[in-house]
Amino acid sequence: MITISSSWRAMPRPALLGLFLFFCAGFADGALVPFFPLWATGEAGIPTGAIGLLFGCYAGGELVAAPLIGGIADRIGRRPVLISSSLGVGCGFIALFFVHGVAATATVLLLTGVCESVLHPTIMTAIADVTAPSAHPRWFSMARVSSSAGQILGPACGALLALISLSTVFLAAGGVLIFGGIVMLAAFAETIGGGHAVDSDQDEEEGLSALLPAFRDGRLAKLLAWVVLFEISGNWIEAIIPLYARDAGMLSPSGIGTLFAYAAALTVGLQMLVSRFAEARPAVWLAAGAGTSTIAAFALLAASPAPLSLIAAVSLCSVAQMLVGPLVPTAVNALAPPARRASYMAASSVAVDLKDSLGPSIGTALYALAPRLPWIAGIPLVAIASLGLGAAIGRASSPSTSATDWSTGADAIKPEELRTLVAEPTSE
User: Is residue 194 part of a domain?
Assistant: First the structure.
């Protein structure tokens, strides 16, 4: 016990606080996402076809804000961004408890998305600031574990609160993030610089092009394009299963919350084990494995909405995310110049925001046409996207594309270093 305690104390404090904030964000997402469609159609009187639009407003706020403020942590520091964004998202979730109607809900979600646009990428940036590059895959895996731990308690708490009122889950989700912001205010120390030399020319560069490196770095743009395609269909699990299970009469709101809590528990229990297993495997192999798992999940859901099919499907999708989850931020961080680390992470978050916007919109529209259509249409989409994702990371590590940083003209990370970071992480 003493050895374990000493080991934790030896870890960088900002990184540990980043894991804690990931836990808070995971709790909020877990408490809100599974119950939002049920609240919208049940208590708010919102048509099923409009649910995707509301999800799109939340992601739309992130998409609008990310090009403008996505790289702000590179200029004003990580600490003020983490504090203000966590408090802003928390207040936005609490505001949902008091609003009614499509217009008011859409407005609140849009403003909340603006605050959320910098939360996750800045946490990842702060972790990368204070940890060695060879340890980034392990830390990003621990970030997923922390988020998933929150997603265990979030749906479990939401399932209890749903017995009172579905809208009360917004209070719990917002309260935890506000608490996280207060902890950041009291305990988080600035990490900007992270011990790296900052390029003065890059520091002086301003404007939209400086904040959207995807427009300037072709390798990053291609990688994120495949990430978007892969994640759009994966998002249908969260967005559609609550409606699919309820309409089939298979699960109650509490049962749906329990199902998502189980999926998060699976990630907590297996993420580090899967990451260790994947250390010696190339990125193409990992992407193909993730695609195969997701396709199998969709095939089960298309065959039947029975509880066993739902459990097996969320299990397979959890495994898919365990395989590719740490892979993408590790590759993005490897491509990023130190002075633009937050900007590159913000560009990566734009891909996630597109997934959160397009995924529910497309998925719920397909579901409105036919309950099984999203799963049938998703199978070829996942097959193509997983192969493209693996190939994109493979090209990023090839000598022809890794010799020079196209966005700055500076020396980029060497191919063998990228392979080590993405596919063969070593312990510190």
Answer: no
Rounded to whole angstroms, how far apart are CA atoms 151 and 79? 24
Is 137 part of a structural domain of the chain? yes
- Is 313 a member of any domain? yes
Asked if residue 329 belongs to a domain, the reply is yes
CATH code (residue 278): 1.20.1250.20
Q: Of 394, 407, 414, 420, whose CA–CA distance to 337 is shortest?
A: 407
Predicted confidence (pLDDT) per residue in 129-167, tens digit: 888 887 887 888 888 889 888 878 887 788 788 778 888
**What is the pTM (predicted TM-score) of this model?**
0.66
Residues of the chain with pLDDT under 70: 1-10, 49, 66-71, 193-216, 352-353, 356-357, 394-428
Say how many domains are in the chain.
1
